[in-house]
Design goal:
The chain has 22 helices and eight strands. By secondary structure, it is of the alpha+beta class. The strands form two sheets. A four-stranded antiparallel β-sheet has the order 2-3-1-4, with helices on both faces. A four-stranded antiparallel β-sheet has the order 6-7-5-8, with helices on both faces.
């Protein structure tokens, strides 16, 4: 045996073990930080609000006032048919006990309803400040004292209770979301690979990538102050397992092909990575670029999701391009048991669903293309049926006490505000501002609050019910008239969320499209093919959002649509949807470079990658579908639209529309690149068919 061959064999054994050792060392370093991610996760309103909005400025200034941020609650005592004197006495005793046990800003006073069925006690405390754990403890202490008695219902509502209930939902995402995602991916991988061992490898590597991403996300938070919320950390986990498994499916599929041609697993993996590596890199690059475009958003929650989601995708990429190949090479061919790809063997011939799809698209490409476009356009019309903006009380799948309190108050105090609007004004102009506020027709009452740092707080009760058209008009009128003051509070926050999401769509969407298009142009060395892929994912987004409009209200009974649904679903569907276009088009380009005619190249690419794309699409759709089982409608709606969009993209757009468009366009799909030009057949015929080099 020669020295060169001995050196090569040593390298084949050493490289995978070295990669494995590096990963063990990396996890040892990152591990302590991964466990701390939950400590920097915040889900207060200010963590989601637009950074430049009035409501954000109000929240920041309130933090600096004496006592810090105020936690506001409303105790609601109700009995159908009217409260009794004993009920009022019980309510007074409970409120007195709460006052003795907690440092409140003022003694709560009862506000009876006109029909005598309800008593409302506003309760506020500065003791929790901005500490979410102290806020939750305060809310739960109040709830422990304020309990149903002798048929009288008692619920605790208000902004503080809503925040606590929302926080509980976000806190519950970590465990259930992770376990459900792992279970869903495991089942799909078992069905795809039909192997007792192989499915464990990509799943375990994705788990390692998820752990790494948590540590890196914590590091970004500490180094650059990137915000981490329950929504962004949950989506990061989804992306790690969804996108990571997609990359694994492509790599393993190509590795299986190479094992039939190449004798040694190490060499087969090198060829597999050489063949599909550019597609995987470009795929992750489009997702990362799309997510990073969210940094241009003004909404804190959207902007924070950009770097957090990018961390998840890049950690998944790193793990799948290094750790996954190393583990597969070390396990050898036996990891595929019982369907082991033997060297020199031919894959079992069987009728391919995607070959049949490709044949139908290839026979009448224009008819298929037109039919698909009409179908997607018809589905997109469903966006006209999307419910209006989601209100606070409609944001929960299972209604907590805080929402029950809001509904009871709305019935018992019709046409009256039960939730304060907060005005922050320069202290030197307090009297003038207070007079102007009280002079508004939409204002029922206004009281001066705390002062400090040159600012004074004014608590305003509107005549309109919370988040009604009348209250919204009052907020807008106050903002227009009170120059130099800020108008905030829960209803103002919801208004700012809607306005800022509309602004962010106008800014972020063009940036996402341009970024993705540039990456595709560089990868495919064409202009037409990238435009085709981008048009396809836009059509998918419109159709998926339209399907949401057809089912959210009529079928699921949702009362509203999250204002951020359009932007976030667009970013994810464009970035993730282009993935499959890259897989398909990259293989099509390979076939074209090898001399295949355009139609043959398109159909061969679909036949060879269709199964992988279908498997990847199912996994990605299933991971995002996990969000539909969460407790907040904004996550349910996001999970539904992305899952449906991925399925449409996988089984309609990629298989039929992109393929039929490529067949119809022929070589023009690669314009203006070299592949778009017809080969010089006469010159080729005069040359000897001897390969150069």
């Amino acid at each position: 045996m020669g020295a060169g061959e001995t050196s090569t064999r040593s390298r084949r054994r050493a490289v995978p073990w070295a990669v494995l050792a590096l990963w063990i060392g990396l996890l040892a370093v990152v591990g302590p930080f991964a466990a701390k991610l939950s400590e920097v996760q915040h889900d207060r309103a200010v963590d989601y609000l637009p950074s430049s909005a009035d409501s954000t400025q109000v929240a920041k200034i309130e933090d600096q006032l004496p006592g810090g941020e105020t936690t506001e609650l409303v105790l609601v005592y109700h009995r159908d048919g009217g409260l009794r004197q004993a009920d009022r006495d019980t309510a007074a005793r409970q409120v007195a006990a709460i006052t003795r046990a907690n440092p409140l800003t003022e003694t709560p006073r009862a506000v009876p309803s006109s029909d005598g069925s309800t008593l409302m006690y506003p309760v506020a405390s500065n003791a929790p400040g901005t500490d979410e754990e102290k806020r939750d403890a305060f809310v739960n202490d109040v709830r422990d004292v304020a309990r149903d008695t002798d048929g009288m219902s008692v619920v605790v509502g208000g902004p503080g209770a809503l925040a606590t209930d929302a926080g509980e939902v976000y806190d519950s995402l970590g465990g259930p979301l992770l376990y459900t995602t792992v279970a869903v991916v495991a089942v799909l991988l078992i069905l795809i690979y039909r192997s007792p061992l192989l499915w464990l490898v990509p799943l375990a590597v994705a788990g390692v990538a998820d752990y790494l991403s948590m540590g890196v996300a914590y590091g970004l938070n500490q180094a650059f102050g990137t915000s981490v919320s329950g929504q962004s950390s949950g989506v990061m986990t989804i992306l790690v397992f969804g996108a990571g498994t997609d990359y694994a499916l492509l790599i393993i599929s190509r590795y299986r092909e190479e094992l039939r041609r190449v004798e040694r697993p190490y060499d087969a993996m090198k060829e597999a990575l050489r063949g599909c590596g550019p597609a995987v890199l470009a795929s992750s690059g489009t997702v990362a670029a799309g997510l990073l475009c969210l940094l241009a958003a003004d909404l804190n929650s959207s902007r924070g999701m950009g770097p957090t989601g990018t961390v998840g995708v890049l950690c998944a990429l790193l793990a799948m391009l290094t750790l996954l190949p190393a583990v597969l090479v070390l396990l050898g061919r036996r990891v595929f048991w019982p369907l082991v790809p033997a060297h020199g063997s031919e894959p079992r011939r069987r009728r391919s669903l995607f070959a049949a799809m490709g044949s139908s698209a290839g026979r009448r490409p224009l008819v298929v293309l037109a039919s698909g476009a009409v179908l997607l356009g018809a589905l997109a019309l469903g966006t006209l049926n999307l419910p209006g903006a989601l209100k606070q009380e409609d944001a929960f799948v299972h209604r907590p006490d805080s929402v029950t309190a809001m509904e009871t108050l709305a019935r018992a105090y019709p046409g009256q505000g039960t939730q304060p609007i907060t005005v922050i004004t320069p202290t030197g102009r307090t009297d003038a501002t207070l007079s102007a506020v009280r002079g508004h027709t939409g204002v029922a009452s206004a009281e001066r609050g705390r002062s400090g740092g040159g600012w004074t707080e004014i608590s305003v009760i509107a005549r309109g019910a919370p988040q009604s058209a009348a209250e919204t008009a009052t907020i807008k009128a106050l903002r227009a008239d009170l120059d130099g003051s800020y108008v905030g509070g829960p209803s103002a926050q919801q208004l700012d969320l809607q306005d800022t999401n509309a602004r962010d769509r106008l800014v972020v969407v063009p940036i996402v499209l341009l970024s993705v298009l540039l990456i595709l142009v560089l990868l495919l060395r064409s202009l037409v093919a990238p435009l085709l892929l981008v048009a396809a994912v836009i059509a998918v987004w419109g159709a998926a959002l339209g399907l949401g409009g057809l089912v959210f209200g009529p079928l699921f009974g949702f009362e509203g649509t999250d204002p951020g649904l359009g932007l976030l679903s667009f970013v994810f569907l464009v970035a993730l949807g282009v993935d499959y276009g890259i897989f398909l088009m990259h293989r099509m380009r390979e076939e074209s470079l090898s001399g295949a005619e355009p139609a043959a190249a398109a159909l061969t690419a679909l036949r060879t990658t269709g199964g992988v794309i279908a498997s990847a699409g199912l996994v990605l759709a299933a991971t995002f579908a996990v969000l539909t089982n969460m407790g907040l409608l904004q996550l349910v709606e996001l999970g539904f639209v992305i899952s449906v969009g991925v399925l449409l993209d996988t089984f309609l757009v990629r298989t039929y529309l992109v393929t039929s468009a490529s067949v119809a366009l022929g070589r023009k799909v690669w314009w203006p690149g070299g592949l778009s030009r017809e080969p010089d057949t006469e010159k080729a015929g005069r040359q000897d068919p001897v390969p150069v080099g």
